[in-house]
């Protein structure tokens, strides 16, 4: 009962050695990373402030972490207690582990932990302290064949009051033209075969699905678009164009 597609693992294993090349096949992920933090901060800012004067200490679970672009950046934040990052691709995860060794902070016990697992292999939390404040799923959902069971398996890992935050791609003709034709076939800024348009998930579908799940609310979205030479930019109301962020609070 795994959400992992062996063909997807094979594809990303082949890209492992270039994951941390800011001008390589993962360039768009490097450029998108600041917006990931912007969106998470926006979600956290919507919650009532803690009465404590101390900085909050968040526990992250980063699913489908790849080479660790987001996981590393989250682990360096002063408000982070720990980051657990999982990925089914052994070659990519080996790259993530090797890169983390360059930063002594990331090697602090419990600060950043990489696991070569799928989310279905993670032990289910027995108590709230084993759950996570922020569960991230960046550029993963569009590589999953059956998104509903996959999301269902993730939900128990979010603590009450915590956030499930993801980014993915809407299934529209615009996204097909941009991500498949332009990005992969014409410009070559994304390796050919990275995306399967049929696996894309529309924002409305996510909103409708989570609307049927008890105990989840506060849904937030942010549409983004990649502009060559300028990078990723937020587009208000652009969730239906292509790339977008989505978050829901437990």
Automatic annotation (TrEMBL):
Protein name, entry field: Ubiquinone biosynthesis O-methyltransferase
GO biological process: methylation
GO cellular component: mitochondrion
Keyword Oxidoreductase among UniProt keywords: no
Domain of life: Eukaryota
GO molecular function: 3-demethylubiquinol 3-O-methyltransferase activity; polyprenyldihydroxybenzoate methyltransferase activity
Keywords for this protein: Methyltransferase, S-adenosyl-L-methionine, Transferase, Ubiquinone, Ubiquinone biosynthesis
Coiled-coil residue spans: none
């Amino acid at each position: 009962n795994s959400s992992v597609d062996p063909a997807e693992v094979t594809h990303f294993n082949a890209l492992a050695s270039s994951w941390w090349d800011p001008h390589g096949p993962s360039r768009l992920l490097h450029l998108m990373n600041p917006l990931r933090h912007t969106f998470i901060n926006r979600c956290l800012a919507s919650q009532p402030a803690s009465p404590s004067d101390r900085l909050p200490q968040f526990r992250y679970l980063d699913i489908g972490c790849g080479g660790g672009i987001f996981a590393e950046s989250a682990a360096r934040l002063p408000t982070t207690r720990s980051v657990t990052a999982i990925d089914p691709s052994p070659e990519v995860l080996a790259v993530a582990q090797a890169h983390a060794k360059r930063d002594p902070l990331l090697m602090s016990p419990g600060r950043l932990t990489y696991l070569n697992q799928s989310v279905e292999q993670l032990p289910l939390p027995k108590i709230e302290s084993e759950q996570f404040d922020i569960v991230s799923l960046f550029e993963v959902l569009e590589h999953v064949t059956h998104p509903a069971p996959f999301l269902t398996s993730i939900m128990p890992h979010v603590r009450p009051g915590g956030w499930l935050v993801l980014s993915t791609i809407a299934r529209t003709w615009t996204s097909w033209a941009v991500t498949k034709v332009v990005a992969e076939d014409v410009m070559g800024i994304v390796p050919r075969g990275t995306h399967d348009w049929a696996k894309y998930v529309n924002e409305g579908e996510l909103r409708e699905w989570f609307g049927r799940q008890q105990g989840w609310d506060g849904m937030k979205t942010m549409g983004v678009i990649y502009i060559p030479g300028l990078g990723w930019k937020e587009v208000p109301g652009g969730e239906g164009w292509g790339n977008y962020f989505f978050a829901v609070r437990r």
